[in-house]
Design goal:
The protein is α/β, with parallel strands linked by helices. It has two domains: 192 residues, Periplasmic binding protein-like II (D-Maltodextrin-Binding Protein, domain 2, 3-Layer(aba) Sandwich); 114 residues, D-Maltodextrin-Binding Protein, domain 2 (3-Layer(aba) Sandwich), CATH 3.40.190. The chain is 33% helix and 16% strand. It is built from twelve helices and 13 strands. A hairpin with a 2-residue loop joins β12 and β13.
């Protein structure tokens, strides 16, 4: 075993849980899993630890070498590369989602379908946030919505404080002391996109834009046959100097964990909820299944997100997926 201790900063959810609870090992390495700070979405999980999404560590993972491997939102990873950070990635994607199921609207907003978002005030955390980039891509491609005519309202700072959205987009800051959820409930914004936004905003004044998102997802999937990536495992280049073999062992461990996760969901040993969607219902009604890990299987997914990031001014050039990942032959 390698004598050095390695750290992996990941959420404790989905297949990552099996690494965190010791069911799956990173062979040949002594690994510690620091816990991300708990958020409001924490909930019990089989195996001891509660569900915690890793978003609280994203800024540190993107801007500092705080872990030997760290989970990061996909668009933020692309930005880190674009800003010249000493970072690369393994083609492991622990979390996926469809933005259709994460949109909540105020009941008095007169928003009945995506085209009604034009001219409305839409809360997204911050402009380059991963779910916001995917959302704008879907709105433009699937629904032909001119996303430059939506007012994007932010209540968080960008991970890279020097980043500014292109001038062609309408971007506002939320008033000091207000959250997007509070603004939506009072009708000061018209819509909100966030993880589980319809569930979080349990108010008679708030509803989901897509009460049943599965048909809309099926339509998007016809032209984009993938389950959009939310997070990716990133590797500071200092880790490669520490051990050139660690990344390969992490990749192998996550492939094992993924198979275990998928099998236990299918056998009903694990709940099939993934980012607000039922995996079984998603496959039955929309034809979408979780994809495994590796670059080949996820290339078109990555190319779509690279294109969305480039079109929206989140990154400054179109990268090829092979430029952005270790283990490009997988």
């Amino acid at each position: 075993m390698n004598a050095a201790r390695f750290t992996i900063g990941i959420g404790n959810r989905y297949d990552s849980l099996y690494l965190r609870n010791g069911t799956v090992k990173v062979e040949g390495f002594d690994v510690a899993y620091p816990s991300p700070p708990e958020r409001a979405e924490s909930r019990p999980q089989p195996g001891g630890e509660g569900y915690v999404a890793p978003s609280s560590i994203f800024t540190a993972v993107a801007t500092q070498s705080v872990y030997d491997v760290g989970e990061l939102a996909l668009s933020t990873y692309f930005q880190a590369v674009d800003y010249g950070k000493e970072i690369t990635a393994i083609p492991v994607f622990p979390s996926r989602f469809f933005p259709h199921c994460q949109i909540a609207v105020h009941v008095d907003s007169a928003i009945e379908e995506p085209k009604d978002l034009v001219g409305k005030r839409f809360g997204v955390g911050f402009f380059s946030k991963n779910y916001a980039v995917w959302l704008r891509g879907v709105l433009r491609e699937q629904y032909h919505v001119p996303v430059e005519k939506i007012i994007w309202v932010e209540d968080e700072p960008e991970h890279f404080l020097e980043y500014r959205p292109p001038d062609r987009f309408l971007v506002e800051k939320a008033p000091a002391g207000e959250t997007l959820s509070s603004l939506l409930k009072t009708g000061k914004i018209d819509a909100l996109a966030a993880p589980r936004a319809p569930e979080r905003n349990r108010s008679p004044k708030v509803r989901a834009l897509f009460e049943n998102p599965y048909p809309a997802i099926r339509e998007y999937y016809k032209g984009h046959p993938f389950f959009p990536i939310n997070t990716v495992l990133t590797v500071p280049k200092s880790t490669l100097k520490k051990s050139p073999d660690f990344s390969q062992s992490v990749f192998a461990a996550f492939k094992q964990a993924f198979e275990l996760y998928r099998d236990e969901v299918r056998s009903e040993k694990r709940e099939d909820e993934h980012s607000g969607l039922s995996l079984k219902r998603l496959e039955a009604e929309s034809g979408v299944a979780l994809l495994g890990y590796g670059l080949r299987e996820n290339r078109e997914n990555l190319r779509a997100m690279i294109q969305y990031c480039y079109e929206q001014g989140v990154i400054r050039r179109r990268y090829e997926p092979e430029e952005l990942f270790l283990l490009a032959e997988t």
